[in-house]
Amino acid sequence: MIRIDQVWLAVDPIDMRCGLDTALAKVVNVFGSAHPHHAYLFANKRGNRLKVLVHDGLGVWLAARRLNQGRFVWPGPGEVSVSMTQEQLQALVIGLPWHRLGARGVIDVI
Fold first, then answer.
1. Which pTM does this prediction carry?
2. Share of the chain above pLDDT 90, in %
3. DSSP per-residue codes, 36-92
């Protein structure tokens, strides 16, 4: 339904009570701007809630997801943002260890 060409994950937590304008301001603050067909992901401190802001080229969509058990796999401090693939996004939103998919999951030393 919504075309997403690039996915970005913000490492710092966000207040889940924020609305569309606050989330958009956070995207501009963290990523510099909101690009069309890009998705921006944020989690709360506990890591059990996720907000996704998508700019579809005409407007902005904001969606939220909550896990009833467990936490989303989230990168630790040290990085401001992380770029993700569509495959990694699909793994993240169902609670799987997305960071092990793709190039980041390559084993090169035994």
1. 0.81
2. 47
3. TTEEEEEE-TTSSEEEEEEE-SSSEEEEEEE-SSS------TT-SEEEE-HHHHHHH
